[in-house]
Amino acid sequence: MSAGKLLAAVRAGRVAEVTDLLDGLSDTERRACLPGLKELRKELREGPWDSEARKAYPALQLAGAACHTGAAAAAAWLGASEWVWQRHVAPRVLLHLLAGREPAWLADVAHRLAALPASRGVSYELMAGLVELAGCPVPVTESYVVGWVGSLNAGRRTDRSLADRLRAEPHVAELTAALFETEDIGGRLDWFPSDSAQSWPRALAELARGEVLERKVLLDGCVARLLRGGRPSDLRLFLKVLDALAPDRDEESERVADWAAMCADGSSPVAAHAQKVLGGLALAGVLPVRTLAEVSGAVLFRTEKKLVRAQLVLLGKVLRSRAGAGDPPVEDVLLPAVGEAFGHADTEVQERALKLVARHVGAADPATREVLVEAAAQLTPGLRPLAEETLGVELAPEEPYTELLPLMQEPFRLAAAPDAAAEVAEEVGAILASGGDVSAFERTLDGLVRHAFRDREGLAAALAPVVARCWWSGADTYGRVQGAFRESTYGLEVVAASVVEVLHLRTLRHGAEHGHEVRAGRSDRALQRCYDARLWEVAYRIRTRPVPFLLATPTWSTGFIEPDELVERLRTYRDTGARAGAADLAQALLRVDRSDARAAADAATSAAALGTREGDRLAAWLAAPPAQGPTATLWPAVGRVLVELPEDRGLQENFPAPFQRLGLPLVAVDDIRAYWWGDSGAGTTGGHLLAALPGRREVVAARLLGELSSCAVEGSRGVTAYLPLLAEAPGAAGPAVHLSVVYGLAARHAEDRLAGVDALLILAARDELDAGLLGSLTARVWEAGGVRLTRLADALGTAASTGAYGTVFGVLRGLLPTLLSSGEPPTALRGLGDLLSVAADCAERTGAHEPVSGLTEVAERRSSSQLVTQARRLRTALTERTKLP
Predict the structure, then answer these.
(1) Tell me: the pLDDT tens digits for 602-641?
(2) Residue ranges of the DUF7824 domain (predicted)?
(3) 631: part of which helix (H) or strand (E)?
(4) What are the two backbone dihedrals, phi and then psi, of residue 640, each rounded to the nearest 5 degrees?
(5) Mean local confidence (pLDDT), 711-719
(6) How large is the average pLDDT for residues 685-699?
(7) Among residues 557, 584, 572, 331, which one has the least CA distance to residue 449?
(8) What does pTM read for this prediction?
(9) What angle, rounded to 10 degrees, do the helices at 330-339 and 366-376 form?
(10) Which of the 8 DSSP states describes residue 210?
(11) Can you tell me the distance from the alpha carbon of 761 to that of 404, in angstroms, rounded to the nearest whole number?
(12) Spatial distance between the Cα atoms of 430 and 441, rounded to a whole number of angstroms
């Protein structure tokens, strides 16, 4: 038989015919067919996805596996990545053709396939069949174990329970032990309720009782996996297995060190389980008191209030049940551990610990009292009097309060563009990899323009290895890259793609003429359109009419351009005959610094003397009056507070279309969809948008506010990343900037709230924060439904813990009266108690004494809730401070 006949059958996808042909071939004849099969594989790989020829894949996979006589080559063929998305040949057919191989060969192939990632999609039936044919040890790799679990889950529709089916598995002990070493297995084992006959935890416990599996191995595996940590789904599953195994007192006692480690470093559910186990041992008198003290020190250091409170309750029970017992007495061992909670961030925890100490300190010796006195120095000021009464000492006086705020970075001049094309390429690579800041972006963009003007071919050669791994690099067979770039510039990528000529001129021309219109009708995005228009223009001009440098490259890190420097750039353009790009000139005008009236007037005179159209425009712009500031407007229909901008006629004349939109009024609308864009990119490009309008951050903040508010109202992620840059930017900080901070503090995700905290602290450090305005705006946003108090309490508590207690209290003084007198039952305001706790902490530390409207009514309620307790604490702090001389 000729190799051509086999190849024809493979190309036609006739699996049965290919099987018959291969059955009659020797190893030598099979190897002779390999070159043609490899060529066909290459042809199919490069062909279109919808090609009719793709029906050949199952037959090709079968023929290649059978014709490779080396185990490594056969495994590489069967485990190739291209089979993942294609139809596979049935495993039984493959096993039929491979069954005649030597057992060692079959074992080698089986283990090589099992070593591949599970994402390769190698059939478990194939691997298991090879193991059975070879009679070799079962591989316990991720791919094999995941496949084994999947095959058992697929058999759940039978009448047999999972335990019965596991008993029939030939390698159940080895594979079950491997479950504890396999990552991300929990979601595959946790499909059914614990009482289901198909439940994995129930089945494993049943096999352990029946001695099919060794109970100690399962217990050790669960404990080791919980100690190691991992995905919540994994930990949840192995906790269920542990519960199903129900270890007895002796088995729990053998693993005390493991439970202690889980309490200290485990995730919250794991630590809670270990805490429960150790609590049972402690109350039964099995756990040594010193061990309990060591564990308590670790648990009381954790941030989870539930765990900390449970540990204090446990310590109280042990102290009551074993008072005066032991040598040394239990009080002298456990009370120093209780004192660890004096330094906890939650003042309620501090108070609980102090009251526990007060109940048992009478039986402690002097050395223990000394330890507790030292620990009491960490207590919040409001608890110090109780501590002094409890311990019978006078604590050292507090240090005078000093507000701690971050140091500010001064503006700096931008470095010049890189001198060599290789340096520019390196900068491009860094920006494509990590984004870079505005300064790096601007100098790199200018460097691309300068070197493209001098030697574009040399610049393209330097960029080629840098962009080789970009998604758009390589052949654009179906025009997908052109279509993708018509939808977005992808930042600096559009310029790099233009330099290396990946983008067609018609794509670049379309972007330069219409790129700013891509997202018309969705949200405001006027600033984003200007940003995109400038990049499209640069990318197009590099290929058509390059310029020696950009006019709009900032002089300073703030985005400003010195007026006299822009005049010099225009003079160079005039002398070299370069023609300024419309978007580049518009951006340069928006960036020119007009704060110094004398410098602006001198530059205007010099610009007019150039005798060019661009010079005249600069002269007129420098003489134009500043635009009117924005005004705040409440729009409860969209569940948020937004800021409207009046018309700016100065931007309506002699500016290109995308920049004219900046001069149109910004009007809040009732349609919430108008503000929602999903992953809009405002967080990542916010710094660039601020640099587009330096000195006018209120305008930038107002135009980004609709999208920013989605982080609190809809829970979108990553939109707040520009808030610290907004706080550092020059210009007035009015309602739009303060509202931006409000939404950052109220963001759904913790990492987004941190950006809001940073912005708050930066504004305070620059003496630009109006704490009263921020508090009142927060109240207005809460009334509109855009703030959850629990998130706000978390963010303000974080800000206060950095040392900005005075700043945070100023914000809360503007917010709390609205909450306390809202007409809503205070107990219905979830998170209000946490806010009052933060306020009380701030008042105690700073000595604040300004009254808070509505506080007394809540504090006088007959209740022991967190809300009323913290209201009383705040009232006490404010009242006592008022009485101080």
Answers:
(1) 999 999 999 999 999 999 999 987 766 666 565 665 678 8
(2) 520-605
(3) strand 631-635
(4) -160, 165
(5) 90
(6) 89
(7) 584
(8) 0.79
(9) 10
(10) T
(11) 9
(12) 10
Dist CA 655 CA 529 (whole Å)? 13
Q: Which of 813, 524, 799, 818 is nearest to 642 (CA)?
A: 524
Tokens of 224: 């080791």
Cis ω on the peptide bond leading into residue 406 (within 30° of 0)? Answer: no
Q: How far is CA 162 from the centre of its chain?
A: 39
Interatomic CA distance for residues 808 and 839, integer angstroms: 8
Whether 289 has a pLDDT exceeding 90, the answer reads yes
CA gap 55, 277 in Å, rounded: 59
pLDDT for res 788: 92
Q: What's the average model confidence in pLDDT over 312-320?
A: 94
Mean of pLDDT values over 803-831: 89
Whole-angstrom Cα Rg for the chain? 35
Which tokens go with 424? 């520019």
CA angle 411, 416, 419 (to 5 degrees): 155
Read off the pLDDT band of 669 (50, 70, 90). Answer: low
Question: Between the CA atoms of 748, 751, 757 and 758, what dihedral angle is there, to the nearest 10 degrees?
Answer: -150
pLDDT in tens, 17-46: 888 888 878 888 888 888 888 888 887 776
484-488: long-range contacts, CB 8 A cutoff, minimum separation 24: 485/511, 486/510, 486/511, 486/515, 486/518, 487/518, 488/518, 488/532
Candidates 230, 378, 370, 243; CA nearest to 301 is 378
**Residue 325: partners with Cβ closer than 8 Å, 6 or more residues away:** none
**Phi, psi values for residue 472, rounded to 5°:** -95, 0
Give the Cα separation of 129 and 578 in Å (integer): 73
> Residue 846 has which token pair?
């700073």
Gap between the Cα atoms of 672 and 638, Å rounded: 5
Q: State how far the alpha carbon of 395 is from the alpha carbons of 384, 492, 843, 845, in Å.
A: 8, 61, 20, 16
Least confident of 157-166, 177-186, 716-725, 742-751: 157-166
**Residue 129 to residues 90, 97, 99, 159, Cα–Cα distance (Å):** 12, 12, 9, 25
pLDDT tens readout for residues 212-242? 899 999 999 999 999 998 889 999 999 999 9
Please, what is the average pLDDT of the chain?
88
Q: Which residues have a Cβ under 8 Å from the Cβ of 843 and sit 6 or more positions away?
A: 809, 849, 874, 877, 878, 881
Residue 672 has a pLDDT of 54
- pLDDT higher than threshold 90 for residue 671: no
- Over residues 131-140, mean pLDDT: 93
**Interatomic CA distance for residues 885 and 876, integer angstroms:** 16
791 dihedral zone (left: phi>0; alpha: psi -120 to 50; beta): alpha
Place of tokens 């808030």: 723
- pLDDT at residue 678, rounded to an integer: 42
